[in-house]
């Protein structure tokens, strides 16, 4: 082999080695970095991959709802006074003459002897009516200084709960009537001022009170009587 042939062979071998080392790598040929692929859940910020939500990572702003506001009470509209029991009458029941409710009024006499103080007398006539559930019947009674009062009521089947309350005859306009006394039992009978704790009239002059009788469960004829001692 001649010296010229040897030199040619060496040059061709060097070109082949350079081609093998360079291959088709664009970065090696152009000097520009290729596209960066981050693992799932990470983003590329121009320098390195970061987990979404980590400190320094870019996140979308979170919308916050404005705080709820509470409407102020309407001026001039009265509300119930806290801590004061009130009585709200339902639709009016059908009033009955005591003679039409005789089956109920006859039951009041023995109940009065049982629950009113000894020597108490009936005031006026009985209050009677025919009730649908939720209906009420009202009647006024005069109360006198130094006296105490018991109200006895009874409902005939299918009345299963009778409620009786004593409220002022002249309530404050716009407010429910304040309850001065009421029965605290569930059943077809109702007693207000059960002995020995009758309802005492503490004012130095006579005044009017209102008896509110309501059938809260069931329906039918009911009657009530006020006793004074």
Note the main attributes of this structure.
single chain, alpha+beta, Jelly Rolls, 3 helices, disordered N terminus
Structure explained in plain terms:
- This protein has 229 residues and is an alpha+beta fold.
- The chain is 17% helix and 33% strand.
- It contains 3 helices and 14 strands.
- The strands form 4 sheets. Strands 4, 5, 7, 11, 12 and 14 form a 6-stranded antiparallel β-sheet that branches. Strands 6-13-8-10 form a 4-stranded antiparallel β-sheet, with no helix packed on it. Strands 1-2 form a two-stranded antiparallel sheet.
- A hairpin with a 4-residue loop joins strand 1 (42-44) and strand 2 (49-51).
- The longest helix has 20 residues, at 3-22.
- Mean pLDDT is 77; it is low at 1-33, 57-63 and 69-84.
CATH topology of one domain: Jelly Rolls
| Total number of beta strands | 14
Strand content: 25-35%
CATH first level of one domain = Mainly Beta
* Major sheet summary line: 6 strands, antiparallel
Report the principal-axis shape.
Answer: elongated
Q: Mean pLDDT, as a whole number?
A: 77
* Backbone structural class: alpha+beta
Give me a quick take on this structure.
Helices cover 17% and strands 33% of the residues. It is built from 3 helices and 14 strands. The strands form 4 sheets. Strands 4, 5, 7, 11, 12 and 14 form a 6-stranded antiparallel beta sheet that branches.
Topology:
Layout: H1 3-22, H2 26-30, E1 42-44, E2 49-51, E3 86-87, E4 94-96, H3 102-115, E5 121-131, E6 136-143, E7 148-155, E8 161-168, E9 177-178, E10 181-182, E11 189-192, E12 199-200, E13 207-217, E14 220-228
Antiparallel strand pairs: 1-2, 3-9, 4-5, 5-14, 6-13, 7-11, 7-12, 7-14, 8-10, 8-13
């Amino acid at each position: 082999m001649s010296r010229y042939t040897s030199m040619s062979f060496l040059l061709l071998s060097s070109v082949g080695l350079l081609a093998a080392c360079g291959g088709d790598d664009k970065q090696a040929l152009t000097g520009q970095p290729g596209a960066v692929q981050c693992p799932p859940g990470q983003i590329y910020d121009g320098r390195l991959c970061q987990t979404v939500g980590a400190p320094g990572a870019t996140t979308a702003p979170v919308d916050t709802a404005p705080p709820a506001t509470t409407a102020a009470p309407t001026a001039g509209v009265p509300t119930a006074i806290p801590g004061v029991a009130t009585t709200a009458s339902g639709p009016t029941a059908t009033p009955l003459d005591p003679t039409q409710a005789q089956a109920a009024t006859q039951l009041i006499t023995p109940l009065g002897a049982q629950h009113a103080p000894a020597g108490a007398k009936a005031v006026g006539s009985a209050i009677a009516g025919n009730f649908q559930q939720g209906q009420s019947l009202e009647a006024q009674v005069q109360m006198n200084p130094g006296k105490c009062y018991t109200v006895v009521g009874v409902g005939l089947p299918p009345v299963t709960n009778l409620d009786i309350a004593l409220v002022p005859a002249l309530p404050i306009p716009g407010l429910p009537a304040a309850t001065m006394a009421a029965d605290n039992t569930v059943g077809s009978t109702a007693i207000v001022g059960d002995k020995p704790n009758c309802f005492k009239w503490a004012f130095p002059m006579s005044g009017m009170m209102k008896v509110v009788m309501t059938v809260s469960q069931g329906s039918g004829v009911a009657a009530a009587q006020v006793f004074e001692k």
